[in-house]
Write a structure and sequence with these properties.
Blueprint (H helix, E strand, L loop, with lengths): L1 H25 L1 H8 L17 H11 L4 E7 L5 E7 L2 H4 L6 E6 L5 E4 L6 H15 L4 H29 L13 H15 L1 H14 L2 H19 L13 H11 L3 E7 L10 E8 L8 E7 L5 E4 L4 H14 L4 H42 L1
Antiparallel strand pairs: 1-2, 1-5, 2-3, 3-4, 5-6, 6-7, 7-8
Helix pairs in contact: 1-5, 1-6, 1-12, 2-5, 6-8, 7-12, 8-11
């Protein structure tokens, strides 16, 4: 009883924020499509050829010659490529100082760029995601919310321990009427909590794993990736004139025809390597589309150097993301996730109400005893 009470109280306020912000994030793609105006994209056949990535990068450099190109993102859902830039690699690590240019991946037309104002959908989703993931305080916020997630898991498990003895006195699903609102809400709290038990544990555990994204990725860079780089110590240093990124992407596609390149980090990036394009690929099936594989391409020679195998902890991170947001089964699963999220909000709010009403009753008894 004590464990359930205090773990619940310690995390309830933050969990309400997480659940309320998580609700629109379940539908983040739909919200972005709804709020963003895509009329600027040309109407072309589905099999229209793509623009040369090197031309897009060159245009980005022409527009901002004082900046470095840090990475590109290739959208597999919309015909667009986003080129990310910054004044320095240090600035690139600060989300507030990054700049982007969004191109139509078929025509090369500029669809938008930093400084012209984010589209309403992107701005709303970004704001919600930052509040949901780190409370706008970066790594410290991520780790803090990870602890909150652990408290939530402890509250759920301790609630199950309490539920067994409690339900010996009642039929399953019984909600007692005529005994006051507190008793009715207690029965609803217990019923809704046990019905959403499995989902709450899955979302709680995967939420904790997701909050470890930054330190886990840094661990991979310091261990596995550094070991690969050490084995390639003879690689010539990258010269200012980099080899063709378009050719690097083609080399990856030739070696892995069943995978799609989603992004590429330029050499020198804190999220990549000093001398390579680090190209991230994903599969085309519902399962493999959630599993990323990084590929190293020498940015000096254009030679494919290494197809990397991610360690188990990054694979666990990849699997946890779709489980957390329910975005691996299309719109029907998203609706189910949203309904379960609303039920969890009800459980949290009812638990807070039960604690406050019990405390108010206790205070009233103490006052009456003092008068007596």
């Amino acid at each position: 009883m004590v464990v359930h009470k205090w773990t619940s109280l310690a995390c309830t306020a933050f969990l309400l924020v997480i659940c309320l912000t998580g609700l629109p994030l379940i539908f983040r793609e739909e919200i972005s499509d709804w709020l963003d105006d895509s009329s600027s994209r040309a109407e072309l056949p589905a099999d229209a050829p793509s623009a040369d990535i090197d031309d897009l990068v060159a245009e980005a450099r022409r527009r901002h010659p004082d900046m470095i190109v840090a990475a590109i993102l290739i959208d597999d859902a919309k015909p667009q490529v986003v080129v990310w830039m910054a004044s320095s690699w240090a600035d690139f690590q600060d989300a507030g100082r990054r700049r982007f240019i969004k191109f139509d991946s078929r025509t090369g037309q500029v669809l938008g760029e930093s400084g012209s104002g984010k589209s309403p959908g992107a701005a709303f989703v970004d704001w919600m995601l930052h509040l949901h993931a780190d409370l706008f305080v970066g790594l410290g916020g991520e780790l803090f919310l990870g602890v909150i997630g652990l408290l939530f898991v402890a509250a759920v498990v301790s609630g199950v321990v309490l539920y067994g003895p409690f339900m010996r006195k009642l039929a399953f699903g019984a909600v007692r009427q005529g005994q006051g609102s507190r008793i009715r809400w207690l029965d609803l709290h217990n019923l809704l909590g046990i019905v959403t038990l499995s989902w709450a544990l899955v979302v709680g555990v995967t939420g904790v794993v997701n909050e470890l994204t930054t330190p886990l990725f840094a661990l991979w860079q310091r261990t596995d990736l550094r070991a690969v780089l050490a084995a390639q110590a003879g690689t010539p240093p990258t010269v200012p004139e980099l080899s063709s990124l378009q050719a690097a992407l083609a080399a990856v596609r030739g070696a892995m025809p069943d995978r799609f390149a989603t992004s590429a980090a330029f050499p020198g990036s804190p999220y990549g390597t000093p001398h390579h394009y680090l190209i991230w690929t994903k599969g085309t099936t519902p399962l493999t589309a959630r599993l990323l594989t990084p590929v190293m391409v020498d940015a000096h020679t254009g030679e494919l150097r290494e197809i990397l195998t991610l360690p188990w902890y990054l694979r666990a991170l990849e699997v946890s993301r779709p489980l957390h947001f329910g975005d691996y089964g299309g719109l029907p699963l998203k609706v189910i996730w949203a309904l379960l999220d609303v039920v969890t909000i009800t459980v949290l709010a009812s638990g807070l109400y039960l604690w406050l009403s019990k405390r108010r009753q206790r205070d009233q008894v103490e006052v009456e005893a003092g008068r007596g």
